[in-house]
Design brief:
The complex is a heterodimer of chains A (about 375) and B (about 450). With about 375 residues, chain A is of the alpha+beta class. Chain A has a 12-stranded antiparallel β-sheet with strand order 16-12-13-14-27-26-25-20-23-22-21-24. In chain A, helix 1 packs antiparallel against helix 2, helix 3 crosses helix 4 and helix 5 packs antiparallel against helix 6. The N and C termini of chain A lie far apart (about 70 Å). In chain A, about 45% of the residues are buried. In chain B, the strands form 2 sheets. In chain B, strands 5-6-7-4-8 form a 5-stranded parallel β-sheet, sandwiched between helices. A 3-stranded mixed β-sheet of chain B has the order 1-2-3. In chain B, about 30% of the residues are buried. Chain B has 4 domains: about 80 residues, GMP Synthetase, Chain A, domain 3; about 170 residues, P-loop containing nucleotide triphosphate hydrolases (Rossmann fold), CATH 3.40.50; about 70 residues, Helicase, Ruva Protein, domain 3 (Orthogonal Bundle), CATH 1.10.8.60; about 90 residues, Orthogonal Bundle (Chromosomal Replication Initiator Protein Dnaa, Chain: A), CATH 1.10.1750.10. Chain B is built from 19 helices and 8 strands. In chain B, helix 10 packs parallel to helix 12 and helix 16 packs across helix 18. Classes of the chains: A alpha+beta (about 375), B alpha/beta (about 450).
Chain lengths: ~375, ~450
C-alpha cells in the first residue's frame, strides 16, 4: 500500500471513526483503524463488532493494499503534523509516515487480521432523505431514549418506514418522542412497510456524522441497517425484539391545554429549577384565564412562583420533572409551545401548535396537580 | 442432544488449532443448529462473526466436522441471537424518580402485550364472577382442550380485562416460554390490520397471530362492522381453533347480542364456553375495596369502606377511581382526611353523570331501544310489548335520576304512584335474576349516557 493524502482530509476521516474505536482485550485489532487503498480510493475503517464505519478520504493511490494501525497513535500523529501532504506506505506490517520534514514508523497488523465488514442486501427497502431533515428529526427523538440493560427493545430509536411516511420514535418509559416525516421530504422504493429498532448509539452516531444538506441513503434488511451519507458509511445491527405499542401511549382525549411563548417558558423552567428539590419537580397551573403559574419549592430552600401569559383552555394543572419537560419544550419547533393535558395522572403532549409532525409525551409527577 | 455433543467436540478441537483470543471472540458462542443430509447449519451471534468464520475458519470447521461425521460436505452459517433470558420488568429503576409516573403502556411486555399488574392473585372472586373464574382456571390447566373458545362477558368495569390478562399472566408464569401467548384488544387488532393493509404486510399479521398458542382478545364487540378485520379475525380464529390453540374472548355482552357481528363468527363464539360476570354483591364489593386498599397501602375506616361499597354498586372501576381520588387528596393535603371529608369525596364521585340527563332523554332512549314511539311509552295502552319498556323506563328514572315516584308516575302517562313503585321494585328484583333483562338495561343506560 502506498498513498498520498492531505492532512485535513485524513483528520476528518479519522474523526468520523473515533466513537467506534474500542479496546477489547480479546481482540486488540478493534482499537485499530484499517487504512485501505484500492481502485484509486482511500478508505478508513473501524468497528466495535456492533457498528462499523467506513470513511472515504480523497488522495492519490500509487499502490493498492491495506494495513491497520492503532487509532490513538495514528490520529495523535496526524493531528499534530504541521505539513499538508502526508505520504503513507506499508512496509511488511509497519506503516511508514512521511512528510517533508517528518518520518515515523508505526507497528500495525495486516489487513487479514481486521474484522470483515458484513454486507447488506441493497436491492430492497431503500430510502433517501435530505440529511438536514433526518438529522433534525432524529435529534429531537433521541433525547427521549435511554440505555437500558433490562429492556433492550427500548434502548433504541424505532424507525417505522411506511410507504408514504416515516416515523421515528424513542422512549425511556417516562417520556416518548415521535417525529413524522412525510413525502415528498424523502424518497423510497418500498413495496411494503418496515419497522426496525436502531440501537441508540448508532442513532447518536448518525446525528453526529451526517452533515447538512447532503442526501442520506438508508438501506434496511432484516437485521442490519446501512446509512450512506457523503463520504461515510455506517453499518449497524438492529435491535431484535418487539417495540412497545407506542401508539397506545399517545393520549387521544385532551382535557385542557395551554399555549405559551417558548423562550419565556424555557426561562421560567430554568428559574423554577433553582428551587426544585432533588426530585426535580415543578408544578404548573392556570392562575386565571390568561396566566400559567409555574411553582417550585422545597422545605429547606424556599419557594418561587413565575407567571407567564398563556392561552388556556380548560383547567390546567400538572406537575412535571422540569428536566424532562425542558427537553421537550426545547425540541418543539417555532416560537410557541403547546402543552396538552389528558387528565389526572395521565401523560401530557408537548409540541408546537403549528407543527403536527412532532410530539413529545411526558408522564406527570404523582400527585403533582 | 447428539448435535450439541458433536459441536462440543468440534469446538474443543478447534480451540487447540486457533489462538485463544480468536476462539473466544469468534467461535465461543456458536451453535450447531441443524444437520440436513450433508449440510450442517451453524448459528453465530452477529454478522461480523459470520463473515469472519465463513472466510477464515470454514475449511477448518468442515474438515473437523468430517473427522467426526464424514457425511457432512458443507456448512451453512446463519445469524441467530441466543434465546433471550426471561426477564420480568423490574420495578422502577431509580429512587430519585420515585414521584415520576410511568407511561403505563411501556411496562407492558411487548411480546405478549400483557400488563404484569393484572394477576389472578389480586382477582377477587365472588358469586358474581365465580363461573367465569372457574372456567378460567380450567382453561389454564387444559390449554386449548377443555373450553375453547372461552367467551367472557360482563358490564363495564367489572374485571373482564383483569380476568383475561390474569389468565395470560398465569399461563406465562406456569408454562414459562413453552406457550406463546398474545393479548390484544380488538381495537389494536383493527389498527394492525389497517397498518398491514396500508403497508402491504398482511402476511405478517397472519403469521404473528397464527403462530400463538393462546390468543386473548379483549372487547370483541368493537370488531363488529369492520369487514376486513372481521374477516382476518375469522381466518385466524379458524386456524387456531383447528389446531387446538386456546382462544379467550371478552365482550360487554353475550355473542347473541353482538349487533353487527357476522353470523359465522357469532356461531363460533357460541360453540365454546360462555361465562358471564354480573354485578358484585355488597360483600364482594367490600372484599374488593379491601384488596385494593392493601395494594395501594391506604388505610380506611370500616365506615368509609362500607359507604363506598354502598355507593359504587355497578362498577368496580368506579371504586378504583374513588380510592385514587382519596390517595390524591391525602398526598396533596399531606394529612389524613376526616370521615366527613371522605364522605364528601365519595358522594361527589358517585353522583357524577346524573347531572345532565333529563327525564325525556331517558324515555326517548328506552323507546329507541325497543323501537317504539316515546308517546306509546307514556300512553295508556297496556299491551304486553309496552309494559316491559315502560317498567324499565320507570326503573331508570328512579335509578339514574333519583326522581320521586309520584313525579315518575305522572311522567309516564299520569299513572298512580304505586304503579311506579311496583315497576321499580319488579325490575330491581328481576335484574339480578334475569341476565337478559340486565343486558337490556345496561345497553339502554349506555344509550342514555351517549345521548347527552
Amino acid at each position: 500500500m502506498k498513498l498520498i493524502a492531505l492532512k485535513n482530509n485524513l483528520k476528518s476521516g479519522l474523526d468520523y471513526l473515533s466513537r467506534v474505536i474500542s479496546s477489547n482485550p480479546n481482540l486488540p485489532v478493534l482499537s485499530n483503524v484499517l487504512i485501505k487503498a484500492s481502485d484509486g480510493e482511500i478508505k478508513l475503517l473501524a468497528t466495535n463488532l456492533e457498528t462499523a464505519i467506513t470513511a472515504k478520504v480523497p488522495g492519490k493511490v500509487t499502490e493498492d493494499g491495506g494495513l491497520s494501525v492503532p487509532y490513538g497513535i495514528f490520529s495523535g500523529m496526524i493531528n499534530n503534523l504541521s505539513t499538508e501532504r502526508i505520504s503513507l506506505e506499508s512496509v511488511k506490517n509497519n506503516l511508514e509516515v512521511k512528510t517533508d520534514n517528518y518520518e515515523a514508523n508505526i507497528q500495525g497488523l495486516g489487513e487479514e487480521e481486521f474484522p470483515i465488514f458484513p454486507k447488506i442486501r441493497k436491492e430492497n427497502n431503500f430510502l433517501e432523505i435530505n440529511s438536514t431533515v433526518l438529522n433534525e428529526n432524529l435529534k429531537k427523538v433521541v433525547i427521549a431514549a435511554e440505555m437500558s440493560e433490562i429492556r433492550p427493545e427500548i434502548s433504541g430509536v424505532l424507525l417505522v418506514a411506511e410507504i408514504d411516511q416515516i416515523k421515528l420514535v424513542a422512549t425511556n418509559s417516562f417520556r416518548l418522542a415521535e417525529a413524522i416525516i412525510k413525502k415528498p421530504q424523502f424518497q423510497n422504493n418500498f413495496n411494503q412497510g418496515v419497522k426496525a429498532i436502531i440501537p441508540l448509539k448508532t442513532a447518536e452516531e448518525i446525528t453526529r456524522i451526517i452533515k447538512d444538506d447532503q442526501s442520506t441513503k438508508i438501506y434496511l434488511d432484516d437485521s442490519q441497517i446501512l446509512v450512506e451519507t457523503g463520504d461515510v458509511e455506517i453499518i449497524s445491527r438492529l435491535i431484535e425484539g418487539t417495540y412497545p405499542d407506542y401508539e397506545a401511549i399517545i393520549p387521544k382525549n385532551i382535557e385542557s391545554q395551554a399555549v405559551m411563548n417558548k423562550g419565556e417558558l424555557i426561562n421560567a423552567l430554568k428559574l423554577a429549577s433553582v428551587f426544585a428539590a432533588k426530585g426535580n419537580d415543578i408544578r404548573m397551573k392556570n392562575k386565571d384565564a390568561k396566566y400559567v403559574e409555574i411553582y417550585s419549592g422545597s422545605s429547606n430552600l424556599g419557594e418561587n412562583n413565575y407567571s407567564i401569559p398563556a392561552e388556556i383552555a380548560g383547567e390546567f394543572r400538572i406537575g412535571f420533572n422540569w428536566r424532562f419537560l425542558l427537553d421537550g419544550v426545547r425540541a418543539a419547533s417555532g416560537e410557541r409551545v403547546i402543552i396538552k393535558l389528558s387528565g389526572q395522572g395521565k401523560p401530557a403532549i408537548i409540541g408546537s401548535p403549528e407543527d403536527k409532525q412532532y410530539s413529545y409525551i411526558l408522564a406527570p409527577l404523582k400527585g403533582g396537580e | 442432544m447428539e448435535r450439541e455433543e458433536l459441536w462440543k467436540s468440534v469446538l474443543s478441537e478447534l480451540e487447540i488449532q486457533i489462538s485463544r483470543p480468536n476462539f473466544l471472540t469468534w467461535l465461543k458462542s456458536s451453535r450447531l443448529t441443524d444437520i440436513k443430509d450433508d449440510i450442517a447449519v451453524v448459528s453465530l451471534p452477529n454478522y461480523f462473526t459470520k463473515e469472519w468464520v465463513e472466510n477464515k475458519y470454514n475449511k477448518l470447521i468442515i474438515s473437523t466436522l468430517k473427522g467426526i461425521n464424514y457425511s457432512i460436505k458443507r456448512v451453512d452459517y446463519v445469524v441467530e441471537s441466543a434465546p433471550k433470558p426471561v426477564s420480568f420488568p423490574k420495578e422502577q429503576e431509580t429512587k430519585v424518580l420515585e414521584k415520576q409516573l410511568l407511561l403505563q403502556e411501556t411496562k407492558i411486555d411487548p411480546e405478549t402485550n400483557l400488563n404484569p399488574k393484572y394477576t389472578l392473585d389480586s382477582f377477587v372472586v365472588g358469586s358474581f364472577n365465580e363461573l367465569a373464574f372457574s372456567a378460567a382456571e380450567a382453561v389454564i390447566k387444559n390449554i386449548g382442550t377443555k373450553y375453547n373458545p372461552l367467551f367472557i362477558y360482563g358490564g363495564v368495569g367489572l374485571g373482564k380485562t383483569h380476568l383475561i390478562q390474569g389468565i395470560g399472566n398465569e399461563i406465562k408464569s406456569l408454562y414459562k416460554n413453552k406457550v406463546k401467548i398474545k393479548y390484544v384488544t380488538s381495537e389494536k387488532f383493527t389498527n394492525e390490520v389497517i397498518w398491514a393493509i396500508r403497508n402491504r404486510r398482511i402476511e405478517d399479521v397472519k403469521s404473528v397471530y397464527r403462530s400463538v398458542d393462546v390468543l386473548l382478545i379483549d372487547d370483541i364487540q368493537f370488531i363488529g362492522g369492520k369487514e376486513k378485520t372481521e374477516e382476518e379475525f375469522f381466518y385466524t380464529f379458524n386456524s387456531l381453533y383447528e389446531n387446538n390453540k386456546q382462544i379467550i374472548i371478552s365482550s360487554d355482552r353475550p355473542p347473541k347480542s353482538l349487533p353487527v357481528l357476522e353470523e359465522r363468527l357469532r356461531s363460533r363464539f357460541e360453540g365454546g364456553m360462555i361465562a358471564d360476570i354480573t354485578y358484585p354483591e355488597y360483600e364482594a364489593r367490600v372484599a374488593i375495596i379491601k384488596t385494593k386498599i392493601q395494594e395501594k397501602e391506604l388505610e380506611l375506616e370500616q365506615k368509609i369502606i362500607e359507604l363506598i361499597a354502598k355507593r359504587a354498586q355497578r362498577n368496580i372501576r368506579e371504586i378504583e377511581g374513588i380510592l385514587n381520588k382519596i390517595i390524591f387528596y391525602q398526598s396533596t393535603k399531606e394529612k389524613v382526611l376526616s370521615t366527613e371529608e371522605l364522605g364528601k369525596i365519595v358522594a361527589e364521585m358517585t353522583d357524577r353523570g346524573a347531572i345532565n340527563i333529563s327525564p325525556n332523554q331517558v324515555i326517548k332512549s328506552v323507546a329507541d331501544f325497543f323501537e317504539i314511539l316515546p308517546n306509546d311509552l307514556t300512553g295508556r295502552s297496556r299491551s304486553k310489548e309496552l309494559v316491559e319498556p315502560r317498567q324499565i323506563a320507570i326503573f331508570l328514572l328512579r335509578d339514574m335520576l333519583d326522581m320521586s315516584f309520584p313525579y315518575i308516575a305522572s311522567k309516564v302517562g299520569k299513572r298512580d304512584h304505586s304503579t311506579a313503585i311496583y315497576a321499580y321494585k319488579k325490575i330491581n328484583n328481576d335484574l339480578t335474576k334475569n341476565p337478559n333483562l340486565h343486558q337490556k338495561v345496561m345497553m339502554i343506560k349506555e344509550l342514555v349516557n351517549k345521548a347527552e
